[in-house]
Protein backbone atom coordinates (compact mmCIF):
# COMPACT_ATOMS: atom_id res chain seq x y z
CA UNK A 1 0.00 0.00 0.00
CA UNK A 2 1.25 3.44 -0.94
CA UNK A 3 0.52 6.82 0.50
CA UNK A 4 -0.71 9.55 -1.82
CA UNK A 5 2.47 11.39 -0.80
CA UNK A 6 4.52 8.77 -2.72
CA UNK A 7 3.03 9.72 -6.10
CA UNK A 8 1.68 13.26 -5.75
CA UNK A 9 2.28 16.69 -4.25
CA UNK A 10 -0.27 19.18 -3.02
CA UNK A 11 -0.92 22.81 -2.00
CA UNK A 12 -3.87 24.36 -0.19
CA UNK A 13 -5.46 27.72 -0.92
CA UNK A 14 -8.23 29.63 0.85
CA UNK A 15 -11.01 32.06 -0.05
CA UNK A 16 -13.41 32.96 2.74
CA UNK A 17 -14.82 29.70 4.12
CA UNK A 18 -13.77 27.64 1.07
CA UNK A 19 -10.56 25.62 0.92
CA UNK A 20 -9.07 24.26 -2.28
CA UNK A 21 -6.49 21.50 -2.31
CA UNK A 22 -4.56 20.53 -5.43
CA UNK A 23 -3.25 17.00 -5.94
CA UNK A 24 -0.58 16.84 -8.63
CA UNK A 25 1.02 13.64 -9.98
CA UNK A 26 4.84 13.63 -10.06
CA UNK A 27 4.73 11.32 -13.09
CA UNK A 28 2.20 11.46 -15.94
CA UNK A 29 1.71 7.68 -15.77
CA UNK A 30 0.29 7.98 -12.25
CA UNK A 31 -2.44 10.41 -13.33
CA UNK A 32 -5.02 7.62 -13.98
CA UNK A 33 -4.48 6.37 -10.41
CA UNK A 34 -5.34 9.79 -9.07
CA UNK A 35 -8.45 10.04 -11.23
CA UNK A 36 -9.68 6.60 -10.15
CA UNK A 37 -8.73 6.55 -6.48
CA UNK A 38 -8.71 10.14 -5.23
CA UNK A 39 -12.40 10.83 -5.57
CA UNK A 40 -14.34 13.74 -4.07
CA UNK A 41 -16.10 11.24 -1.77
CA UNK A 42 -12.82 9.87 -0.41
CA UNK A 43 -11.49 13.37 0.19
CA UNK A 44 -14.67 14.33 2.01
CA UNK A 45 -14.49 11.20 4.20
CA UNK A 46 -10.80 11.82 4.90
CA UNK A 47 -11.42 15.27 6.36
CA UNK A 48 -14.55 14.14 8.24
CA UNK A 49 -16.10 16.84 10.43
CA UNK A 50 -13.63 19.50 9.27
CA UNK A 51 -15.44 19.88 5.95
CA UNK A 52 -19.12 20.61 6.43
CA UNK A 53 -20.13 21.49 2.86
CA UNK A 54 -19.84 19.80 -0.51
CA UNK A 55 -16.54 18.77 -2.10
CA UNK A 56 -16.14 19.34 -5.85
CA UNK A 57 -13.36 17.86 -7.99
CA UNK A 58 -11.91 19.45 -11.13
CA UNK A 59 -9.57 17.58 -13.50
CA UNK A 60 -6.58 19.10 -15.34
CA UNK A 61 -5.24 16.16 -17.36
CA UNK A 62 -2.64 18.15 -19.31
CA UNK A 63 -0.73 18.89 -16.10
CA UNK A 64 -1.72 15.70 -14.26
CA UNK A 65 -3.59 17.52 -11.51
CA UNK A 66 -6.85 17.37 -9.59
CA UNK A 67 -8.29 20.36 -7.75
CA UNK A 68 -10.63 19.77 -4.80
CA UNK A 69 -12.86 22.63 -3.72
CA UNK A 70 -14.21 22.09 -0.22
CA UNK A 71 -17.07 24.29 0.96
CA UNK A 72 -17.70 25.33 4.57
CA UNK A 73 -14.27 23.96 5.43
CA UNK A 74 -12.51 26.75 7.35
CA UNK A 75 -14.41 27.12 10.62
CA UNK A 76 -16.59 29.99 9.37
CA UNK A 77 -13.87 31.62 7.27
CA UNK A 78 -10.25 32.66 7.57
CA UNK A 79 -11.07 35.98 9.20
CA UNK A 80 -13.19 34.57 12.05
CA UNK A 81 -12.09 30.95 12.55
CA UNK A 82 -10.93 29.91 16.03
CA UNK A 83 -8.49 27.39 14.53
CA UNK A 84 -4.74 27.69 15.04
CA UNK A 85 -4.38 27.33 11.25
CA UNK A 86 -7.33 29.43 10.09
CA UNK A 87 -6.26 29.30 6.43
CA UNK A 88 -6.27 25.50 6.43
CA UNK A 89 -2.72 25.63 5.06
CA UNK A 90 -1.93 22.28 6.70
CA UNK A 91 -4.74 20.41 4.92
CA UNK A 92 -2.60 19.55 1.89
CA UNK A 93 -0.14 17.59 4.04
CA UNK A 94 -3.02 15.77 5.75
CA UNK A 95 -4.53 14.79 2.41
CA UNK A 96 -1.24 13.24 1.31
CA UNK A 97 -1.70 10.54 4.00
CA UNK A 98 -4.52 9.01 1.92
CA UNK A 99 -3.77 5.36 1.07
CA UNK A 100 -3.37 4.37 -2.59
CA UNK A 101 -3.52 0.92 -4.24
CA UNK A 102 -0.41 0.64 -6.44
CA UNK A 103 -2.18 -0.51 -9.61
CA UNK A 104 -3.13 0.86 -12.98
CA UNK A 105 -6.09 -1.46 -13.42
CA UNK B 1 7.86 40.12 -31.17
CA UNK B 2 7.82 42.69 -28.37
CA UNK B 3 8.52 41.28 -24.89
CA UNK B 4 8.57 42.71 -21.36
CA UNK B 5 9.92 41.47 -18.05
CA UNK B 6 7.86 41.80 -14.88
CA UNK B 7 9.23 40.94 -11.42
CA UNK B 8 7.40 40.37 -8.14
CA UNK B 9 8.72 42.51 -5.30
CA UNK B 10 6.45 41.10 -2.57
CA UNK B 11 3.80 38.39 -2.34
CA UNK B 12 2.35 39.51 0.98
CA UNK B 13 2.59 42.51 3.29
CA UNK B 14 5.32 41.10 5.51
CA UNK B 15 7.46 39.65 2.72
CA UNK B 16 11.27 39.86 2.57
CA UNK B 17 12.68 43.07 1.11
CA UNK B 18 16.13 42.02 -0.24
CA UNK B 19 14.77 39.86 -3.11
CA UNK B 20 12.98 42.93 -4.52
CA UNK B 21 16.21 44.93 -4.35
CA UNK B 22 18.10 42.12 -6.13
CA UNK B 23 15.45 42.03 -8.87
CA UNK B 24 15.59 45.79 -9.35
CA UNK B 25 19.39 45.82 -9.51
CA UNK B 26 20.08 42.76 -11.60
CA UNK B 27 16.79 41.40 -12.98
CA UNK B 28 16.65 43.59 -16.11
CA UNK B 29 12.96 44.04 -15.39
CA UNK B 30 10.59 46.69 -16.70
CA UNK B 31 8.10 46.51 -13.84
CA UNK B 32 8.38 45.65 -10.14
CA UNK B 33 5.09 44.74 -8.51
CA UNK B 34 4.42 44.48 -4.78
CA UNK B 35 1.29 42.56 -3.73
CA UNK B 36 0.67 43.39 -0.08
CA UNK B 37 -3.05 43.09 0.73
CA UNK B 38 -4.69 40.10 2.41
CA UNK B 39 -8.44 39.64 2.75
CA UNK B 40 -8.95 41.70 5.88
CA UNK B 41 -5.94 44.06 5.69
CA UNK B 42 -8.02 46.97 4.37
CA UNK B 43 -10.59 46.65 7.15
CA UNK B 44 -7.81 46.90 9.75
CA UNK B 45 -6.16 49.74 7.78
CA UNK B 46 -9.49 51.58 7.66
CA UNK B 47 -9.68 51.41 11.46
CA UNK B 48 -6.11 52.77 11.66
CA UNK B 49 -7.08 55.63 9.30
CA UNK B 50 -10.09 56.47 11.47
CA UNK B 51 -7.70 56.95 14.41
CA UNK B 52 -5.12 58.86 12.29
CA UNK B 53 -6.07 60.33 8.86
CA UNK B 54 -2.43 60.09 7.73
CA UNK B 55 -2.31 56.35 8.41
CA UNK B 56 -4.12 53.47 6.73
CA UNK B 57 -1.49 52.41 4.21
CA UNK B 58 1.01 49.57 4.43
CA UNK B 59 3.35 50.00 7.42
CA UNK B 60 6.27 48.63 5.36
CA UNK B 61 5.73 51.10 2.49
CA UNK B 62 8.49 53.40 3.72
CA UNK B 63 11.10 50.64 4.08
CA UNK B 64 10.25 49.12 0.71
CA UNK B 65 10.32 52.46 -1.11
CA UNK B 66 13.59 53.50 0.49
CA UNK B 67 15.08 50.17 -0.61
CA UNK B 68 14.04 50.28 -4.28
CA UNK B 69 13.06 53.79 -5.43
CA UNK B 70 16.53 55.03 -6.44
CA UNK B 71 17.58 51.92 -8.32
CA UNK B 72 14.19 51.71 -10.07
CA UNK B 73 14.53 55.36 -11.15
CA UNK B 74 18.06 54.68 -12.47
CA UNK B 75 16.96 51.69 -14.50
CA UNK B 76 13.57 52.99 -15.63
CA UNK B 77 11.64 50.32 -13.71
CA UNK B 78 8.05 51.28 -12.94
CA UNK B 79 6.54 50.20 -9.62
CA UNK B 80 2.96 49.07 -9.05
CA UNK B 81 1.61 48.14 -5.63
CA UNK B 82 -1.57 47.86 -3.57
CA UNK B 83 0.33 49.17 -0.52
CA UNK B 84 -2.10 52.11 -0.57
CA UNK B 85 -4.53 49.87 1.36
CA UNK B 86 -7.19 52.16 2.91
CA UNK B 87 -5.29 55.35 2.00
CA UNK B 88 -3.66 55.33 -1.48
CA UNK B 89 -3.38 59.14 -1.50
CA UNK B 90 -1.60 59.10 1.87
CA UNK B 91 0.73 56.37 0.59
CA UNK B 92 1.50 58.38 -2.57
CA UNK B 93 2.21 61.54 -0.54
CA UNK B 94 4.60 59.62 1.70
CA UNK B 95 6.30 58.09 -1.36
CA UNK B 96 6.78 61.56 -2.87
CA UNK B 97 8.35 62.77 0.40
CA UNK B 98 10.75 59.82 0.39
CA UNK B 99 11.58 60.44 -3.30
CA UNK B 100 12.44 64.06 -2.47
CA UNK B 101 14.66 62.97 0.41
CA UNK B 102 16.44 60.63 -2.00
CA UNK B 103 16.86 63.43 -4.55
CA UNK B 104 14.60 61.82 -7.14
CA UNK B 105 13.22 65.10 -8.46
CA UNK B 106 10.37 64.76 -10.92
CA UNK B 107 9.41 61.20 -9.95
CA UNK B 108 5.71 60.82 -10.69
CA UNK B 109 3.55 58.92 -8.22
CA UNK B 110 -0.11 58.09 -8.89
CA UNK B 111 -2.76 57.10 -6.35
CA UNK B 112 -5.56 55.03 -7.89
CA UNK B 113 -8.88 55.48 -6.12
CA UNK B 114 -12.44 54.26 -6.40
CA UNK B 115 -12.29 50.96 -4.54
CA UNK B 116 -13.71 52.42 -1.30
CA UNK B 117 -17.45 51.93 -1.84
CA UNK B 118 -18.65 52.16 1.76
CA UNK B 119 -20.64 55.30 1.01
CA UNK B 120 -22.23 54.11 -2.22
CA UNK B 121 -23.43 50.63 -1.28
CA UNK B 122 -27.20 50.49 -1.30
CA UNK B 123 -28.57 49.06 1.97
CA UNK B 124 -31.44 47.49 0.06
CA UNK B 125 -29.86 46.11 -3.11
CA UNK B 126 -26.36 45.15 -1.93
CA UNK B 127 -26.59 41.46 -1.06
CA UNK B 128 -24.23 39.79 1.40
CA UNK B 129 -23.56 36.33 0.03
CA UNK B 130 -22.39 34.55 3.20
CA UNK B 131 -25.40 35.72 5.23
CA UNK B 132 -27.84 35.63 2.31
CA UNK B 133 -29.32 38.97 3.32
CA UNK B 134 -29.41 42.61 2.25
CA UNK B 135 -26.86 44.97 3.78
CA UNK B 136 -29.72 46.65 5.67
CA UNK B 137 -30.44 43.39 7.51
CA UNK B 138 -26.79 42.66 8.35
CA UNK B 139 -26.83 43.37 12.04
CA UNK B 140 -23.13 44.16 12.56
CA UNK B 141 -20.91 47.23 12.80
CA UNK B 142 -19.53 47.63 9.25
CA UNK B 143 -16.09 49.30 9.15
CA UNK B 144 -15.12 49.09 5.47
CA UNK B 145 -16.32 48.10 2.00
CA UNK B 146 -13.84 47.82 -0.86
CA UNK B 147 -14.38 46.66 -4.41
CA UNK B 148 -11.72 44.64 -6.21
CA UNK B 149 -10.76 47.02 -9.03
CA UNK B 150 -9.52 45.78 -12.37
CA UNK B 151 -6.54 46.91 -14.43
CA UNK B 152 -8.19 49.98 -16.01
CA UNK B 153 -7.22 52.61 -13.42
CA UNK B 154 -3.61 51.40 -13.34
CA UNK B 155 -3.41 51.47 -17.15
CA UNK B 156 -4.70 55.06 -17.14
CA UNK B 157 -1.96 56.05 -14.68
CA UNK B 158 0.69 54.32 -16.83
CA UNK B 159 -0.55 56.19 -19.90
CA UNK B 160 -0.24 59.43 -17.92
CA UNK B 161 3.41 58.61 -17.22
CA UNK B 162 3.38 57.46 -13.60
CA UNK B 163 6.64 55.95 -12.34
CA UNK B 164 5.01 54.57 -9.19
CA UNK B 165 1.37 53.54 -8.93
CA UNK B 166 -0.28 52.90 -5.57
CA UNK B 167 -3.74 51.39 -5.29
CA UNK B 168 -6.07 50.33 -2.56
CA UNK B 169 -8.00 47.13 -3.19
CA UNK B 170 -7.26 45.89 -6.69
CA UNK B 171 -7.52 42.30 -7.85
CA UNK B 172 -4.03 40.86 -7.39
CA UNK B 173 -3.61 39.61 -11.00
CA UNK B 174 -4.89 42.95 -12.36
CA UNK B 175 -1.79 44.72 -11.00
CA UNK B 176 0.28 42.43 -13.26
CA UNK B 177 -2.19 42.53 -16.16
CA UNK B 178 -2.17 46.34 -16.35
CA UNK B 179 1.42 46.76 -17.64
CA UNK B 180 0.80 44.02 -20.24
CA UNK B 181 -2.30 45.85 -21.51
CA UNK B 182 -0.33 49.11 -21.59
CA UNK B 183 2.83 47.77 -23.24
CA UNK B 184 1.19 45.48 -25.80
CA UNK B 185 -1.80 47.69 -26.56
CA UNK B 186 -4.31 44.91 -25.81
CA UNK B 187 -7.97 45.83 -26.17
CA UNK B 188 -10.08 45.60 -23.02
CA UNK B 189 -12.30 43.03 -24.76
CA UNK B 190 -9.48 40.83 -26.07
CA UNK B 191 -10.57 38.08 -23.70
CA UNK B 192 -7.94 35.56 -24.78
CA UNK B 193 -5.03 37.90 -24.11
CA UNK B 194 -6.59 39.31 -20.94
CA UNK B 195 -6.99 35.69 -19.78
CA UNK B 196 -3.33 34.95 -20.52
CA UNK B 197 -2.18 38.13 -18.82
CA UNK B 198 -4.28 37.22 -15.79
CA UNK B 199 -2.69 33.76 -15.77
CA UNK B 200 0.78 35.33 -15.63
CA UNK B 201 -0.41 37.66 -12.88
CA UNK B 202 -1.85 34.78 -10.89
CA UNK B 203 1.43 32.86 -11.18
CA UNK B 204 3.48 35.89 -10.04
CA UNK B 205 1.23 37.37 -7.37
CA UNK B 206 2.52 35.24 -4.48
CA UNK B 207 6.19 35.98 -5.13
CA UNK B 208 8.42 33.17 -3.88
CA UNK B 209 5.58 30.63 -3.89
CA UNK B 210 6.46 29.89 -7.54
CA UNK B 211 10.27 29.92 -7.15
CA UNK B 212 10.46 27.13 -4.58
CA UNK B 213 8.96 28.82 -1.52
CA UNK B 214 6.16 26.94 0.25
CA UNK B 215 7.24 23.82 -1.67
CA UNK B 216 10.10 22.06 0.15
CA UNK B 217 9.52 18.65 1.74
CA UNK B 218 12.96 17.30 2.65
CA UNK B 219 13.90 14.08 0.90
CA UNK B 220 10.93 14.31 -1.46
CA UNK B 221 10.83 17.86 -2.77
CA UNK B 222 14.17 19.47 -1.94
CA UNK B 223 14.74 23.15 -2.66
CA UNK B 224 18.20 24.75 -2.50
CA UNK B 225 19.04 27.79 -0.38
CA UNK B 226 15.61 28.91 0.82
CA UNK B 227 17.22 31.53 3.06
CA UNK B 228 18.20 33.38 -0.14
CA UNK B 229 15.05 32.62 -2.14
CA UNK B 230 14.87 34.60 -5.39
CA UNK B 231 11.54 36.15 -6.42
CA UNK B 232 10.02 35.42 -9.84
CA UNK B 233 10.42 37.14 -13.18
CA UNK B 234 8.02 36.63 -16.08
CA UNK B 235 9.26 37.23 -19.62
CA UNK B 236 6.05 37.94 -21.50
CA UNK B 237 5.57 38.26 -25.26
CA UNK B 238 2.79 40.25 -26.84
CA UNK B 239 0.71 37.15 -27.60
CA UNK B 240 0.44 36.69 -23.80
CA UNK B 241 2.59 33.58 -23.44
CA UNK B 242 5.37 33.70 -20.89
CA UNK B 243 8.45 32.13 -19.37
CA UNK B 244 8.71 32.07 -15.58
CA UNK B 245 12.25 32.34 -14.25
CA UNK B 246 14.32 33.92 -11.49
CA UNK B 247 17.62 35.68 -11.03
CA UNK B 248 20.71 33.46 -11.38
CA UNK B 249 22.60 32.92 -8.15
CA UNK B 250 19.56 33.26 -5.89
CA UNK B 251 18.06 30.41 -3.88
CA UNK B 252 15.01 28.38 -4.77
CA UNK B 253 14.03 26.73 -8.05
CA UNK B 254 11.52 27.21 -10.86
CA UNK B 255 10.25 23.85 -12.09
CA UNK B 256 7.08 22.50 -13.70
CA UNK B 257 6.06 21.26 -10.23
CA UNK B 258 6.44 24.66 -8.52
CA UNK B 259 4.43 26.26 -11.34
CA UNK B 260 1.67 23.63 -11.16
CA UNK B 261 1.23 24.14 -7.41
CA UNK B 262 0.96 27.88 -7.86
CA UNK B 263 -1.36 27.56 -10.88
CA UNK B 264 -4.05 25.98 -8.68
CA UNK B 265 -3.37 28.03 -5.53
CA UNK B 266 -6.64 29.68 -4.40
CA UNK B 267 -8.37 28.58 -7.61
CA UNK B 268 -11.81 26.96 -7.65
CA UNK B 269 -13.13 26.04 -11.11
CA UNK B 270 -10.00 26.32 -13.33
CA UNK B 271 -12.21 27.08 -16.34
CA UNK B 272 -13.70 30.09 -14.58
CA UNK B 273 -11.18 32.15 -12.62
CA UNK B 274 -13.42 35.16 -12.21
CA UNK B 275 -11.61 38.50 -12.23
CA UNK B 276 -12.75 42.12 -12.74
CA UNK B 277 -11.24 42.28 -16.24
CA UNK B 278 -11.99 38.81 -17.60
CA UNK B 279 -13.00 35.28 -16.71
CA UNK B 280 -9.67 33.53 -17.10
CA UNK B 281 -9.58 29.91 -18.20
CA UNK B 282 -6.65 27.90 -16.80
CA UNK B 283 -8.04 24.50 -17.85
CA UNK B 284 -5.86 24.17 -20.96
CA UNK B 285 -2.63 25.60 -19.55
CA UNK B 286 0.55 23.81 -20.61
CA UNK B 287 3.64 23.97 -18.41
CA UNK B 288 6.99 22.99 -19.92
CA UNK B 289 10.51 23.08 -18.48
CA UNK B 290 12.70 24.63 -21.19
CA UNK B 291 15.92 25.12 -19.20
CA UNK B 292 17.30 25.36 -15.69
CA UNK B 293 14.87 27.54 -13.68
CA UNK B 294 12.98 28.36 -16.88
CA UNK B 295 9.39 27.20 -17.37
CA UNK B 296 7.23 28.08 -20.38
CA UNK B 297 3.56 28.85 -19.79
CA UNK B 298 1.11 28.59 -22.70
CA UNK B 299 -2.50 27.75 -23.37
CA UNK B 300 -4.20 30.30 -21.15
CA UNK B 301 -7.56 31.56 -22.33
CA UNK B 302 -10.31 33.91 -21.30
CA UNK B 303 -13.98 34.74 -21.61
CA UNK B 304 -16.03 37.92 -21.35
CA UNK B 305 -15.99 39.48 -17.88
CA UNK B 306 -19.08 39.33 -15.65
CA UNK B 307 -19.48 43.10 -15.33
CA UNK B 308 -19.66 42.81 -11.54
CA UNK B 309 -16.96 43.50 -8.97
CA UNK B 310 -16.48 41.55 -5.76
CA UNK B 311 -16.80 43.76 -2.69
CA UNK B 312 -15.24 42.81 0.65
CA UNK B 313 -17.13 44.19 3.63
CA UNK B 314 -15.21 44.42 6.90
CA UNK B 315 -17.20 44.32 10.14
CA UNK B 316 -16.71 43.84 13.86
CA UNK B 317 -17.74 40.23 14.36
CA UNK B 318 -16.98 39.16 17.91
CA UNK B 319 -14.28 38.91 20.53
CA UNK B 320 -11.98 35.99 21.20
CA UNK B 321 -10.26 34.91 24.41
CA UNK B 322 -7.53 32.30 24.50
CA UNK B 323 -5.29 30.55 26.98
CA UNK B 324 -2.54 27.95 26.62
CA UNK B 325 -0.66 25.68 29.03
CA UNK B 326 1.91 22.89 28.53
CA UNK B 327 2.09 19.33 29.93
CA UNK B 328 5.14 17.10 29.48
CA UNK B 329 6.48 13.66 30.32
CA UNK B 330 4.58 10.40 30.91
CA UNK B 331 0.82 10.92 30.80
CA UNK B 332 1.09 14.35 29.17
CA UNK B 333 -1.79 13.65 26.79
CA UNK B 334 -4.05 12.33 29.59
CA UNK B 335 -3.34 15.34 31.78
CA UNK B 336 -3.98 17.67 28.85
CA UNK B 337 -7.32 15.97 28.21
CA UNK B 338 -8.27 16.20 31.89
CA UNK B 339 -7.47 19.92 31.79
CA UNK B 340 -9.70 20.36 28.72
CA UNK B 341 -12.55 18.57 30.51
CA UNK B 342 -12.15 20.91 33.47
CA UNK B 343 -12.19 23.99 31.24
CA UNK B 344 -15.34 22.89 29.41
CA UNK B 345 -17.07 22.41 32.79
CA UNK B 346 -15.78 25.75 34.05
CA UNK B 347 -17.49 27.63 31.20
CA UNK B 348 -20.82 26.49 32.58
CA UNK B 349 -19.99 26.62 36.31
CA UNK B 350 -18.51 30.13 36.04
CA UNK B 351 -21.38 31.33 33.85
CA UNK B 352 -19.16 32.44 30.94
CA UNK B 353 -21.32 33.18 27.92
CA UNK B 354 -19.70 31.55 24.86
CA UNK B 355 -20.70 31.77 21.19
CA UNK B 356 -18.21 29.06 20.21
CA UNK B 357 -15.66 26.96 22.11
CA UNK B 358 -12.60 25.13 20.81
CA UNK B 359 -10.29 23.08 23.00
CA UNK B 360 -7.34 21.08 21.65
CA UNK B 361 -3.91 19.71 22.35
CA UNK B 362 -1.18 21.10 20.09
CA UNK B 363 0.91 18.10 19.08
CA UNK B 364 -2.13 15.81 19.00
CA UNK B 365 -5.22 17.29 17.37
CA UNK B 366 -5.01 21.08 16.89
CA UNK B 367 -4.93 20.87 13.09
CA UNK B 368 -6.89 17.65 12.57
CA UNK B 369 -9.61 17.41 15.27
CA UNK B 370 -10.24 13.69 14.67
CA UNK B 371 -6.60 12.74 15.12
CA UNK B 372 -5.72 10.23 17.84
CA UNK B 373 -2.22 10.12 19.32
CA UNK B 374 -0.12 7.19 18.10
CA UNK B 375 1.36 4.67 20.56
CA UNK B 376 4.45 6.85 20.78
CA UNK B 377 2.31 9.73 22.00
CA UNK B 378 4.10 13.06 22.06
CA UNK B 379 6.34 13.61 25.07
CA UNK B 380 4.80 17.03 25.51
CA UNK B 381 1.56 18.74 24.53
CA UNK B 382 0.31 22.30 24.68
CA UNK B 383 -3.31 22.79 25.59
CA UNK B 384 -5.08 25.54 23.66
CA UNK B 385 -8.51 26.71 24.77
CA UNK B 386 -10.16 29.42 22.69
CA UNK B 387 -13.64 30.91 22.97
CA UNK B 388 -15.70 33.38 20.96
CA UNK B 389 -17.51 35.90 23.17
CA UNK B 390 -19.65 39.02 22.83
CA UNK B 391 -17.19 41.36 24.54
CA UNK B 392 -13.54 41.70 25.56
CA UNK B 393 -14.27 41.51 29.31
CA UNK B 394 -15.77 38.05 28.88
CA UNK B 395 -12.93 37.06 26.54
CA UNK B 396 -10.42 37.94 29.27
CA UNK B 397 -12.00 35.36 31.58
CA UNK B 398 -10.85 32.51 29.30
CA UNK B 399 -7.17 33.18 30.00
CA UNK B 400 -7.96 33.52 33.70
CA UNK B 401 -9.61 30.09 33.71
CA UNK B 402 -6.60 28.53 31.96
CA UNK B 403 -4.24 30.26 34.39
CA UNK B 404 -6.21 28.90 37.35
CA UNK B 405 -5.19 25.40 36.20
CA UNK B 406 -1.82 26.14 37.82
CA UNK B 407 -3.24 25.64 41.30
CA UNK B 408 -6.51 23.86 40.51
CA UNK B 409 -5.79 21.60 37.54
CA UNK B 410 -3.78 18.46 36.69
CA UNK B 411 -0.18 17.96 37.86
CA UNK B 412 2.71 19.68 36.18
CA UNK B 413 1.07 22.28 33.97
CA UNK B 414 3.39 25.13 32.98
CA UNK B 415 3.94 28.14 30.76
CA UNK B 416 0.50 29.72 30.67
CA UNK B 417 -0.07 32.40 28.07
CA UNK B 418 -3.34 34.28 27.58
CA UNK B 419 -4.70 36.77 25.08
CA UNK B 420 -7.81 38.56 23.90
CA UNK B 421 -8.65 40.19 20.60
CA UNK B 422 -11.47 41.86 18.73
CA UNK B 423 -12.29 40.06 15.49
CA UNK B 424 -12.75 42.14 12.36
CA UNK B 425 -14.09 39.71 9.80
CA UNK B 426 -15.00 39.86 6.11
CA UNK B 427 -18.15 39.08 4.16
CA UNK B 428 -18.64 39.77 0.48
CA UNK B 429 -21.07 40.60 -2.28
CA UNK B 430 -21.17 41.81 -5.89
CA UNK B 431 -21.50 45.35 -7.24
CA UNK B 432 -22.19 46.25 -10.90
CA UNK B 433 -18.96 47.88 -12.10
CA UNK B 434 -20.86 50.88 -13.47
CA UNK B 435 -21.75 51.88 -9.90
CA UNK B 436 -18.23 53.10 -9.15
CA UNK B 437 -15.74 55.33 -10.91
CA UNK B 438 -12.00 54.65 -10.88
CA UNK B 439 -9.69 57.64 -11.08
CA UNK B 440 -6.13 58.56 -10.16
CA UNK B 441 -4.35 61.50 -8.59
CA UNK B 442 -0.84 62.26 -9.85
CA UNK B 443 1.85 63.82 -7.65
CA UNK B 444 5.41 64.77 -8.48
CA UNK B 445 8.53 64.77 -6.35
Top keywords for this entry?
heterodimer, A: 105 residues, Alpha-Beta Plaits, four-stranded antiparallel β-sheet, two-stranded antiparallel ribbon, 3 helices, B: alpha+beta, ten-stranded mixed β-sheet, 29% strand
What is the number of strand segments of chain A? Answer: 6
Which class of secondary structure composition applies to the elements of chain B? alpha+beta
Work out the count of structural domains of chain A. Answer: 1
Q: How confident is the prediction overall: mean pLDDT of chain B?
A: 96
Main sheet properties of chain A: 4 strands, antiparallel
Q: pLDDT average of chain A, as an integer?
A: 95
Order of helices and strands of chain A: EEEHHEEHE
Counted up, domains of chain B total: 2
Contiguous low-pLDDT stretches of chain A (5 residues minimum) are none
Question: What fraction of the residues of chain A are assigned to beta strands by DSSP?
Answer: 25-35%
Using only CA atoms, what is the Rg of chain A? 14 Å
Q: How many individual helices of chain B?
A: 11
Beta-strand residue percentage of chain B:
25-35%
Helix content of chain B: 25-40%
The percent of residues in helical segments of chain A reads 10-25%
Helix and strand composition category of chain A: alpha+beta
Coarse shape of chain A: elongated
How would you characterize this protein structure?
The complex is a heterodimer of chains A (105) and B (445). Chain A has 105 residues and is of the alpha+beta class. Chain A is 19% helix and 30% strand. Chain A is built from three helices and six strands. Chain A has a four-stranded antiparallel β-sheet with strand order 2-3-5-4. In chain A, strands 1-6 form a two-stranded antiparallel sheet. In chain A, strand 4 and strand 5 form a beta hairpin. Chain B has 445 residues and is α+β, with helices and mostly antiparallel strands. Chain B folds into two domains: 3-114 and 149-306, no CATH class; 313-428, 2-Layer Sandwich (Alpha-Beta Plaits), CATH 3.30.70.100. Helices cover 28% and strands 29% of the residues of chain B. Chain B is built from eleven helices and 20 strands. Chain B has helices at residues 18-26, 41-51, 61-75, 88-101, 152-159, 172-184, 191-204, 256-263, 332-349, 392-403, 405-408, and strands at residues 3-10, 31-34, 78-81, 108-113, 127-128, 133-134, 141-147, 164-167, 232-237, 242-246, 273-274, 279-281, 286-291, 294-298, 301-303, 308-328, 356-362, 380-389, 414-432, 439-444. Chain B starts with a strand and ends with a strand.
Amino acid sequence: MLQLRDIAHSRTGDKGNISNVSVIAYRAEDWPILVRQVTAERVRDHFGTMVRGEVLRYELPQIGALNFVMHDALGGGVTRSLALDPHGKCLSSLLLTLTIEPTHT
Amino acid sequence: MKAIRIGTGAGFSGDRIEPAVELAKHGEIDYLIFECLAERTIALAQQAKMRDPHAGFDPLLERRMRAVLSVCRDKGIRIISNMGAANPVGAAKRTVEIARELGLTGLRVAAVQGDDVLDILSPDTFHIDEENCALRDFNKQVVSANAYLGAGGIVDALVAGADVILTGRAADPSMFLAPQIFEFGWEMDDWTRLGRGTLVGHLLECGGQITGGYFADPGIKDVPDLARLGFPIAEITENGNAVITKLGGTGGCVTAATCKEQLLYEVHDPKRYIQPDVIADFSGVEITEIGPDRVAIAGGNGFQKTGSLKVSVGYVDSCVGEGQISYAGPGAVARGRLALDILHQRMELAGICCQEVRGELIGVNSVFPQAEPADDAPGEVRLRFVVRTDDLATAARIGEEVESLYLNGPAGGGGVTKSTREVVAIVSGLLPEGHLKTHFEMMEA
